[in-house]
Design goal:
The chain is α/β, with parallel strands linked by helices and about 800 residues long. It contains 22 helices and 21 strands. The protein has an eight-stranded mixed beta sheet with strand order 14-21-20-15-19-16-18-17, sandwiched between helices. Strands 3-2-10-5-6-7 form a six-stranded antiparallel beta sheet, with no helix packed on it. A four-stranded antiparallel beta sheet has the order 11-12-1-13.
Length: about 800
C-alpha cells in the first residue's frame, strides 16, 4: 500500500473560511485572461491615436479687466463731499458693483453683437484627411444673406461649395455629389429653400481652386446662446476688482477676437450708458435749478415785504436798542418815584408846626441843587438849636432868631417841594407812556423773530440746494466731457498652451480604458454565468467538504493515469485524491466500497471513477470497477471493452447466474471491470433487489476496493438506491458546467444523510481562469518530472484563444 500522505490542503485552507476574500485568487482570475487585456489595450491605443489624429487642438484664451471703484474723499484729488441726495443724483459717484458688470459682460445682447460683428453665425470648414480645418479669416469667400425665408433649423444649414475656378462654383448635396452641371458665379444671387444668398470672393480664393468648402449657416440667436455658454467671467478676489474673461477655441485668433470684441463692446456700452446717465442728469439738474431758483426768489421777496411791513431792518439790533431804552426809562421812572418819596418826607417835615421834629435823612443825589442847599442850611440850624438845648432852656430868647430862620427855610423847602413834585409827576407820566410803548414793541419781537427766522431758514435751504445743484452740474459736466470708463483692460486676450487633447493624458486614459473594458467584460461574464466556478461556492452553501480537485485536460483519452509524460501532473492529482480517499475510509484494508455520482450527465463522473480505480490498482490493490449506470454506461468505452458483454443487469435479473464469465480484465494489472451488460427498461427495480447486496458482499471477499459508477442523482434515483451498499460517496461537480442551483440540491441530500460520508470532487478546474487551480504543465508538478514533453504549437494556440 502506498505511504503517500494527503497533499491536498484545501480542506483546511484559510481561503475556504466563509466570507474570506482571497486577493491573490481574484488577481489570478483576471490575469488568466491576459490576451484579452493585451487586445483591449492595443485597441484603446489605436482608438486614442485616431482620436488625436482627428481632433483639433483646443486653446485656452484669457483676458483681464480691472474696475476702478469710486471713493469719496474730503480733500485731495477725490470727489467733493456731497449729501446723500446729491450722490443719488450724481451718476459719476455711484459705486461699481463688479458682480453686476460680470452679468452685463455675459449678457445675450452683448454676445449677439459680437456674433454679428465677427460674423460668427457663419463658419467655413474644409476636410483634409482626418482633420476638419476651420477657415476663420482665411476662407476663399464670404457668405451673405440677401433674403432669408423664415427661420433656420436648430442645427443650421450646411452648404457644400466646390470651387471650380476664379469666377464660378458648384453647390453639392449632403452626400458631396454635384447637383447637375449648373454653375454659380461669385457675387451673384443664389436661391434655394432657405433664402437668397451670395458668395463674395476673398483674396484667398486662389488657394482653394478645385476644393470643397462647407459653409455652416446658423441662426444668430442660437450662435449667441452658444457663445454665451462658452465664455466665463470670474472675479479673482472680492477685495481686488480684477475680472478674468476666458473661453476656448480650436482657432486661437478667433478666440482672441471674440474676447477682445466682448471687452470693446462692454466698454463702449458702459461708457454709452454712463454718457446717457450724465445727459439725463444734466437735464434734470437744469430743471431743478430753474425751479429752486424761482423758489429762492419768492422766499427773498417774502422776507423783504415782511421786513418792510414790520419796519424791521436788523431785528436783533432793534430788539437790543428797545431793551436798552426801556431799561433807561425804567431807571428814570424809579428815580422819579424815589425823589417823590423823599419830597413827600420833606413836605411832611415842612408842614410840621413845631420845631421838635427832626429833619429826615435824604440822599442828596436825587434832589435839586437849590433844595439841597436849603436842606443843608436847615440841617445846620437844627444842629445849632440842638447844641443850645443842651445848655440853654427853650424859654431863652436866643432861640427866637434860630426858630425864625428855621421857619423861613421850611417855607422855602415847602415851596421848592411843591414845584419839584409837580415837575416830577409830569416827567413820570411821560416816562410811563414811553415805557409802555417800548414794552409793547418788545413783546412783538419774539413773534417777529420766529416768522423772520422761518423765512430765513427756508431761504437758506433753497440757497444751499441751489448751490449744491450748481456744484453737481459742474461735476457732471466735467465727467460728461471727460468720457472715461470705470473699467480698464489689464491684459488683452491671449492664447495659452493647448488645453485639449493632452497627448500623455489621452494615451493614459486609453491605457486605463484598455484595462477597464476587459475587466468589466470578465466580471459581467462571471455575474451572468449560472454555472459553478469555484469550490468556495460549494463549501459555503452546502458544508460538504471538497475531497479534491481535478484539473481540466484537453485530451481524447479518458484514462489519464497511465504514467506518460504529458499526463504526469493530472495523474498526481488523482494520486492525491486516492490518498485522501484512503483516509476517508479510515484505513480499512479490504472490501472498501466507493460510490461515485453527480447531478447531471457530462460532469465527468465516469472519468473520475475510471481514473480513481486505475490509481488504486497502481498501489498493488485488487480493484473492481462496477458500471452501474444502467441507462448510459461509459466505463466499458473508457477501457475499450465490449458493451455487449453480459454484466450487472444479467446478474441482477437471473438469480442463478454467477459472476464467473461476467467480470472482465482491463489492461491495467489488478483492475477488473464488471460492465453494465444489457440495457434494461427497469433499472431501478433491479437495483432494489437483495441480489445487489449479495453482489457487493461477494466482491468484498475478493477485492480490496470496489468502485461504483452510478447514474446522475438529479435525473434518476438509482444512485440513492445503490448508496446502501457504499462506505464512501463521491459527488462530482464540474467547473463551468454544473449549474449553481445544484448546490442547493447537494445541501439537501447532505442534510437528509442520503449518502454515507458524502464528499465532493471538483472536476475540470481550468488553471487561473477563475483565479485558482493547477494545470498539468505547472512548474510545481514539472519540477518532479524528469522528462518534460514540449507543447505542440496547436495546443499553444488553442490555449491562447481559450484565455479570451
Amino acid at each position: 500500500m502506498s505511504t503517500l500522505q494527503p497533499q491536498d490542503t484545501t480542506l483546511s485552507s484559510p481561503a475556504n473560511v466563509k466570507g474570506a476574500v482571497d486577493v491573490n485568487e481574484i488577481i489570478k482570475k483576471y490575469l488568466y485572461h491576459w490576451p484579452l487585456y493585451i487586445v483591449g489595450i492595443i485597441l484603446a491605443m489605436v482608438l486614442a491615436y485616431f482620436y488625436l489624429l482627428k481632433t483639433n487642438p483646443v486653446y485656452p484664451i484669457v483676458a483681464t479687466l480691472k474696475f476702478d471703484v469710486p471713493t469719496l474723499s474730503s480733500s485731495g484729488g477725490g470727489p467733493m463731499p456731497q449729501s446723500a441726495l446729491m450722490q443719488s443724483l450724481d451718476p459719476t459717484s455711484k459705486p461699481v458693483i463688479v458682480e453686476n458688470e460680470i452679468e452685463v459682460m455675459q449678457s445675450e445682447k452683448l454676445m449677439y453683437q459680437v456674433v454679428m460683428n465677427l460674423q460668427l453665425w457663419v463658419t467655413y470648414t474644409q476636410k483634409s484627411h482626418f482633420l476638419t480645418k476651420d477657415l476663420y479669416k482665411i476662407s476663399p469667400f464670404d457668405f451673405k444673406f440677401l433674403k432669408q425665408n423664415g427661420t433656420l433649423p436648430p442645427n443650421g444649414v450646411a452648404i457644400k461649395v466646390f470651387i471650380k475656378d476664379h469666377n464660378s462654383f458648384i453647390v453639392k448635396d449632403i452626400d458631396g455629389k454635384i447637383q447637375g452641371d449648373k454653375k454659380f458665379v461669385f457675387s451673384a444671387p443664389v436661391k434655394n429653400d432657405f433664402g437668397t444668398w451670395q458668395l463674395s470672393p476673398t483674396p484667398n480664393l486662389e488657394n482653394y481652386i478645385d476644393s470643397t468648402i462647407v459653409v455652416n449657416v446658423e441662426d444668430p440667436d442660437l450662435a449667441a446662446a452658444g457663445l454665451q455658454k462658452g465664455i466665463k467671467a470670474e472675479l479673482e478676489d472680492k477685495d481686488a476688482p480684477f475680472v478674468n474673461l476666458s473661453t476656448t477655441d480650436i482657432v486661437p485668433q478667433r478666440g482672441k477676437d471674440i474676447l477682445n470684441a466682448v471687452l470693446d463692446l462692454y466698454q463702449k456700452e458702459a461708457l454709452g450708458d454712463k454718457t446717457k446717465e450724465a445727459q439725463r442728469a444734466l437735464v434734470f439738474i437744469d430743471k431743478r435749478l430753474d425751479s429752486v431758483g424761482n423758489d429762492l426768489k419768492a422766499v427773498e421777496n417774502k422776507i423783504q415785504q415782511y421786513q418792510s411791513s414790520e419796519g424791521i431792518t436788523d431785528l436783533v439790533a432793534q430788539a437790543q436798542s428797545d431793551r436798552d431804552v426801556n431799561q433807561a426809562n425804567t431807571k428814570s421812572l424809579n428815580d422819579a418815584k424815589l425823589q417823590q418819596t423823599i419830597l413827600q418826607e420833606l413836605e411832611i417835615y415842612a408842614n410840621s408846626p413845631k420845631n421838635d421834629q427832626k429833619l429826615p435823612a435824604i440822599d442828596a443825589a436825587f434832589l435839586d441843587v437849590s433844595l439841597v442847599s436849603i436842606y443843608e442850611k436847615l440841617s445846620d440850624l437844627e444842629l445849632q438849636r440842638e447844641q443850645l438845648l443842651a445848655t440853654t432852656p427853650t424859654e431863652n430868647p436866643i432861640y427866637i432868631p434860630i426858630d425864625r430862620q428855621i421857619a423861613a427855610l421850611k417855607s422855602s423847602i415847602k415851596d421848592k417841594v411843591i414845584a419839584i413834585k409837580s415837575a416830577l409827576q409830569a416827567s413820570q407820566k411821560q416816562l410811563e407812556s414811553i415805557n409802555s410803548g417800548y414794552q409793547t414793541s418788545l413783546k412783538k419781537i419774539p413773534m417777529q423773530g420766529m416768522k423772520s427766522n422761518a423765512m430765513k431758514r427756508e431761504e437758506e435751504i433753497k440757497a444751499a440746494l441751489y448751490s449744491d445743484l450748481l456744484t453737481l452740474r459742474e461735476r457732471v459736466s466735467l465727467q460728461y466731457g471727460s468720457s472715461v470708463s470705470d473699467a480698464q483692460i489689464v491684459d488683452d486676450a491671449h492664447a495659452g498652451k493647448v488645453k485639449w487633447p493632452m497627448v500623455p493624458m489621452v494615451y493614459g486614459l486609453a491605457f486605463i480604458l484598455g484595462l477597464i473594458l476587459p475587466t468589466s467584460l470578465v466580471y459581467a461574464r462571471e455575474m451572468l454565468n449560472d454555472r459553478i466556478i469555484s469550490r468556495k461556492q460549494i463549501e459555503d452553501a452546502t458544508g460538504v467538504p471538497i475531497l479534491g480537485e481535478i484539473s481540466y485536460l484537453d485530451s481524447k483519452s479518458p484514462i489519464v493515469v497511465t504514467g506518460t509524460r504529458s499526463k504526469f501532473a493530472i495523474g498526481e492529482q488523482f494520486r492525491v485524491l486516492r490518498t485522501n480517499l484512503y483516509h476517508l475510509h479510515n484505513h480499512n484494508g479490504k472490501g472498501r466500497v466507493t460510490l461515485c455520482t453527480s447531478s447531471i450527465g457530462g460532469e465527468g463522473k465516469s472519468f473520475i471513477c475510471s481514473n480513481i480505480a486505475v490509481t488504486m490498482a497502481y498501489t498493488s490493490r485488487k480493484v473492481i470497477l462496477l458500471e452501474m449506470d444502467l441507462r448510459k454506461p461509459k466505463v466499458s468505452i473508457n477501457f475499450g471493452l465490449s458493451s455487449e458483454h453480459p454484466g450487472i443487469s444479467e446478474y441482477l435479473e437471473n438469480d442463478s447466474l454467477g459472476l464467473e464469465g461476467l467480470i472482465q480484465h482491463s489492461n491495467i494489472p489488478g483492475l477488473d471491470i464488471l460492465s453494465c451488460g444489457l440495457i434494461v427498461p427497469n433499472p431501478s427495480e433491479l437495483l432494489e433487489k437483495r441480489r445487489l447486496d449479495d453482489l457487493i458482499n461477494e466482491l468484498k471477499k475478493v477485492y480490496d476496493d470496489i468502485v461504483i459508477d452510478s447514474p446522475p442523482i438529479h435525473l434518476v434515483t438509482d444512485a440513492i438506491i445503490i448508496s446502501r451498499t457504499a462506505d464512501v460517496s463521491l459527488y462530482v461537480a464540474r467547473q463551468g458546467y454544473t449549474y449553481k442551483h445544484e448546490i442547493e440540491f447537494i445541501a439537501e441530500i447532505n442534510a437528509d444523510n442520503r449518502f454515507p460520508k458524502l464528499t465532493v470532487i471538483f472536476n475540470g478546474v481550468k488553471s487561473g481562469k477563475h483565479g485558482y487551480g493547477y494545470s498539468y504543465s505547472d512548474k510545481s508538478y514539472n519540477s518532479y518530472n524528469t522528462s518534460k514533453e514540449k507543447l505542440k504549437f496547436g495546443s499553444v494556440i488553442k490555449g491562447f484563444f481559450r484565455r479570451f
